[in-house]
Amino acid sequence: MGQAHGAAAGPACTPRLWRASNAAEVGRLAFTVVAELVRARPTAVISLTTGITTRGLYQALITACRSGRIALSAARLVSSEEYLGVSDDDQISLFGWLRRDLLDPCGVAPAAVLRLAGDSADPIVECARFDAALQRLGGLDLVVQSVGLNGHFGFNEPGSPRDVATRVVTLAPTTRESNAAYWPAGAAVPAQALALGVRPSLQAGHVLLLASGARKATALARALCGPIDEESPCSLLRLAPRLTIIADAGALSEWPDHSAPESLPKQVTSVAASDLSGRGRPC
Description:
Shape: globular
CATH class: Alpha Beta
Largest sheet: 7 strands, parallel
Distance between the termini: 17 Å
Number of domains: 1
Number of helices: 8
Oligomer: single chain
Number of strands: 10
Strand order of the largest sheet: 3-2-5-8-9-1-10
Mean pLDDT: 89
Helix content: 25-40%
């Protein structure tokens, strides 16, 4: 199962940046990564997140599932975060969002997905149960995440240690404000959530990090060009054995010339989407 079997996090591979022209192309390129894995290993363990950035990927997966080009029925899917105190059938449930955006259209039964129960009577025990179940699966083959406005990924907010397990987290005000836009007026975004930890994410065989839009540009530039530290959780993903970043022009706009590979730090390999035809496999 790839490198997911308890591999220690470390700079095992130069991260690769795929430069997309727009959000639609981010989704298309992300689909190629997920589809290649599922075709090669139908029972792959894949962690999924929610949000606007992943919708292009999920639409492409739905189209491929409905046409029979791929199947997710054997894959072991993992839902990486949930609001604390929220049940699966709540209107703001993140697992409910994942069901609507991907699982139900692809015919994946909810019972087949490893997820965090936000309404658990004991959230600490629930997080330990989740991590134990993930270990029994052999760890993650692929983590799909997106860049948060403050540099978080999957509710791992600034200050998250690189060795932290799945746990209860307190959401940053910027995260709650951003997430409020996803829900009907008057729906309160909880102050806390359950989040897949940084440690199991870094132990995954491959991390796929997506970014779209100019609002993500500062956080992405900090993650790729700044120091690897806890104040930029996405920067910690550079310690994963294999990291692919797919970002569009808006998300890369913090560089003077984001189309030029020389504008990127030396530790990141850059490939334009137009150059990926017939090759472009991540490192």
